[in-house]
Amino acid sequence: MKAIRQLRRLIKINRVLSHYEIDKMVLGGSKFAWLVWFNAILPWNWKKRSQLSRAERIRLALEELGPIFIKLGQALSTRKDLLPYDIAIELAKLQDDCPPFDEQHSLELIEAALGKPVGEAFAEFDPMPMASASIAQVHAAKLPDGQEVVVKVVRPDIKPVIEQDVAIMFMLASLFEKAVKIAKRLHPVEVVAEFEKTILDELDMIREASNAAQLKRNFDGSDLLYVPEIYWSHTAENVMTMERIYGIRISETEKLIEAGVDLKDLSAKGVIIFFTQVFKHNFFHADMHPGNIFVLPDGRYAAIDFGIMGTLTPEDQRYLAENFLAFFNRDYLRVSELHIESEWVPRDTRVNELESAIRSVCEPIWDRPLKEISFGLVLMRLFQTARRFGMEIQPQLVLLQKTLLNIEGLGRQLDDELDLWDTAKPFLEDWMQERVGPKGLVKNIKSNLPFWIEQAPTLPGLLHSALDKMAHNGVGMQSEQLERIEKELAQQNRHNRNRTIAVALAVAPFLAHSLGFEVEEAFVIAIWALAAWFVVKK
């Protein structure tokens, strides 16, 4: 039965790809071009083919193939470092709206997850969903204490659908990689693997709730960002209950103006929130599109949907901050050195060649006003250039780039005069001072001092053990070599000692003369000179 379902799915995918001429777009001119002609004679492909632009055809094909392919398209839309610009822009139009699943299914899933009837778990529960997407749908409810909440429920039996479609995606990616010359540079199989991990993570409501709780702690008491409360007593692996918030969507500019919100201030706050998450907390919301961001009546941002979060290593944080500062100082040599030091490109990369490539890509940007320079596009251009030198883009850097592009888009939608550099530069400079300046040194000593004190008594034993192990394992020099070196050192020490004595004896007559030994002067000088000569000769 499973094999039959998969065959039907393959036939549908084949029909859709053929109708929108995706097969011709990908395989035409390759060694698999015969598949295009083969597809044309299949009965389900006798329908007239679409004549739209390539980008529109790709978007429509993904929409017709369903929610999992739509999610893939959305993920790809952030990879402007991989895709042609027109395709990336068109894919950004994909909407993750799906018909809601049956109300009774939703009730059954919640009751099974919470281990009690919905009427007991909630004082009120609206079976009609507020919103429905490919992974889950959301219901309005009230807890027994009157707290208004939203309940997010994962779609029933969604995991087998994801596994089936992802398996087909892997097959298509592998075919693409073998058929098209430039495909290896695009890493299609790796992209699908990254997508599989992301979408499977989104199925786990416990994980998403934990992300929300961490982000809330990070911004506790902040006047910048509000994160809704998670109600763990009403949360399980496939159900999450979260405080309901009332605000205006960040994309509804007219409503924000009517509410008296200062858009210029709001756009600057968005930038500060992003850099605070990335550099101060090292934990950032990586899905900050307009549907997930609201503005509360008090002017604070409010975020929802915490399925995709990003983190960076401390090294990546520092190198990114230095890269941004070096770029805006037009120090392309330093940008190149940072790429090599961080091993984003291979260690044997010639720094002058990388510097020249980065300069040729970045210098034209400076023809535009600073406020029009896109941080996200700068990062993307740097990654694209570095790819030519063997750079492998890491998932956390892709998430960062995606988030930065989203933040820029939101910020400039609110304030088209937003100068991202003017807002970000003081933050980055202060952060660098805290990390590598005197403040950073003091902070590092304070944080590590207890550990150093604790470990100090064990150091002699560890050193002895290491040396003993080296001796027994034959690491270092052989005993014969050691003996020979010891003899040479002893002989050298003896010669040095004798020379020192000879010099002292040679000086002695002059010392005697200065003390008034005039009568015996010749005798003393002769004796000491003879002794000096004898010692040196020996």
Automatic annotation (TrEMBL):
Domain Protein kinase: 124-511
Annotated metabolic or biological route of this protein: Cofactor biosynthesis; ubiquinone biosynthesis [regulation]
Keyword Kinase among record annotations: yes
Keywords: ATP-binding, Cell inner membrane, Cell membrane, Kinase, Membrane, Nucleotide-binding, Transferase, Transmembrane, Transmembrane helix, Ubiquinone, Ubiquinone biosynthesis
Xref: Gene3D superfamilies: Transferase(Phosphotransferase) domain 1
Family according to the record: Belongs to the protein kinase superfamily. ADCK protein kinase family.
PROSITE patterns: PROTEIN_KINASE_DOM
Protein name as catalogued: Ubiquinone biosynthesis regulatory protein kinase UbiB
Coiled-coil regions listed in the entry: none
Pfam family, one: ABC1
